[in-house]
Each structure stands twice: as structure tokens, then as C-alpha cells.
């Protein structure tokens, strides 16, 4: 009777899936026969199980072969866990304390508002900011929370994660804050790929019309991305060319902060 109940509720399938993931976790790659032998099930059952896990991003098939390995979802969870542990070790107040003088120097060098942002699930939270010197300037948004994909700092951090992890953070799609906000997951995937390619993220009218931003991720001493620094300015002063010119300042700032974490 108990075995029947297990089958009805899928408990045995769940158990096999978990055992498979644990088995994969201790190996670089496995074959269908390895999984079937480990679980004591038919090869067809092992194949269906691996195909289901692959469909959800928990495992992936090695290109050009019949081997499987851990997929982007689990790798993303591991990265996310590392980031959480790093944040716990540092603490928000300590991060802000360490970052503040660097934000001030960045503000002075760029003559624009500088900010510190951190991912919190699907959102980016503005932890601190230093206002720029111009009469027409962007005010810091310290304490504000926005969808991460609408901010330069949020996108800089999303670009550090496996795509499947990002996709699963927005199961209901993307909400547009302005007409320029990236509208769907396919467009976001391309945007994040561009961020990785050029080494910085851009926000062009995506959270507030006529406000542009550029962001770079901050990595701690272990290489874990724990936050991002950004420059925000009116669109009239921060076009693509100036953003490219400011990017080295942001990278230097992010590296200087990371060396103290």
C-alpha cells in the first residue's frame, strides 16, 4: 500500500531525481547507464529522468556526446549561495561603510551621481549614493527597489548568473517601467550577453525616461559578485560614447572596493 501511495504522489520519482542530482554532484559527467545502475532502474527510466531534469535546467547534455553534467540552474544556485554567504560575512552596513569613500571619489572623477546597488531576488536595491555636482543631476535613490533588469547595476549583476537562473527569477515575464524597458526574456538574454561582452551594463531610459546609467559588478576577494557600482546622469550628458569613457573609472572603483571585502 505504501509503495502505491508513493507512486500516486510521485514521491519515488522525486527521490530518484534528488538521488541523481547528488550522484551528478560528485562527478564531472555521467551516462544514462551510470544513472540506471546507480538508481537500480531501467535505462529507459533513467533516460526519461535525465531528459526531464534537462528540460528544467537542472542537468545539461555535454555537446557532441551522450554524457550529462550539472546544469545552469544548480550552478546558478551555487553562485547565489556564495553571494549570500559573502553578504552575510560582510553585512550591508559594512559594505556601505567600505564603499562610501570610493563612491565619493567616483562621483568626483566622473562629475556625476554614483550609486551602490545589490541584488535581492529579482530586484536591485539602491544601498547608497552620492549626488553629482551639476545643477541638472540625477538624485541618489538610496532605499529604492526596482526590477533588476531596469537598472545598470542590476543588469551588471544578472550578467554574472547563468541564464537559466535569471529566467527563473521572472516566471511571469518582465514589467515595463518605461517604453524603453527591455520587454521580454529573449531581449534581456541578448542585453546581458552584450553586458558581458563589453564589460559593463547600460540603462538607457529603462527605469526613468531621460536618465541613463552605466554599471559594473563588484566582486569580493573570492571572485563572488556581491554588488554593483553605477554612474547615473541625464541623457544629455551620458550617451554611449561617454559611457564607454567612464567604464574604466567604474572598473577601477569596483576593483578597489573588492580588494577591501
UniProtKB/TrEMBL annotation:
Segments forming domain HTH iclR-type: 11-72
Keyword annotations from UniProtKB, A to Z: DNA-binding, Transcription, Transcription regulation
Pfam families linked to this entry: HTH_IclR, IclR_C
GO molecular function: DNA binding; DNA-binding transcription factor activity
Organism name: Streptomyces zagrosensis
Domain IclR-ED: from-to ranges: 81-261
Origin superkingdom: Bacteria
GO BP field: negative regulation of DNA-templated transcription
UniProt protein name: DNA-binding IclR family transcriptional regulator
Amino acid at each position: 500500500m505504501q509503495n502505491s501511495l508513493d507512486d500516486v504522489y510521485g514521491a519515488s520519482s522525486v527521490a530518484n531525481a534528488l538521488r541523481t542530482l547528488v550522484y551528478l554532484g560528485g562527478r564531472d559527467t555521467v551516462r544514462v547507464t551510470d544513472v540506471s545502475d546507480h538508481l537500480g532502474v531501467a535505462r529507459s527510466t533513467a533516460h526519461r529522468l535525465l531528459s526531464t531534469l534537462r528540460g528544467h535546467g537542472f542537468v545539461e547534455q555535454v555537446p557532441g556526446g551522450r554524457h550529462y553534467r550539472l546544469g545552469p540552474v544548480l550552478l546558478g544556485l551555487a553562485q547565489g549561495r556564495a553571494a549570500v554567504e559573502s553578504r552575510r560575512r560582510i553585512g550591508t552596513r559594512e559594505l556601505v561603510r567600505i564603499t562610501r569613500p570610493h563612491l565619493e571619489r567616483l562621483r568626483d572623477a566622473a562629475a556625476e551621481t554614483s550609486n551602490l546597488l545589490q541584488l535581492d531576488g529579482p530586484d536591485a536595491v539602491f544601498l547608497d549614493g552620492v549626488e553629482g555636482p551639476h545643477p541638472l543631476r540625477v538624485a541618489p535613490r538610496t532605499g529604492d527597489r526596482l526590477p533588476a533588469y531596469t537598472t545598470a547595476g542590476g543588469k551588471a549583476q544578472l550578467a554574472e548568473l547563468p541564464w537559466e537562473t535569471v529566467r527563473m527569477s521572472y516566471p511571469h515575464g518582465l514589467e515595463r517601467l518605461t517604453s524603453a524597458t527591455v520587454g521580454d526574456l529573449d531581449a534581456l538574454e541578448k542585453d546581458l550577453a552584450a553586458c558581458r561582452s563589453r564589460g559593463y551594463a547600460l540603462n538607457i531610459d529603462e527605469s526613468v525616461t531621460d536618465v541613463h546609467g552605466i554599471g559594473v559588478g563588484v566582486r569580493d576577494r573570492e571572485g563572488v559578485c556581491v554588488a554593483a557600482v553605477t554612474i547615473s546622469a541625464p541623457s544629455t550628458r551620458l550617451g554611449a560614447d561617454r559611457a564607454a569613457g567612464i567604464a574604466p573609472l567604474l572598473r577601477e572603483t569596483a576593483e578597489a572596493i573588492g580588494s577591501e571585502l
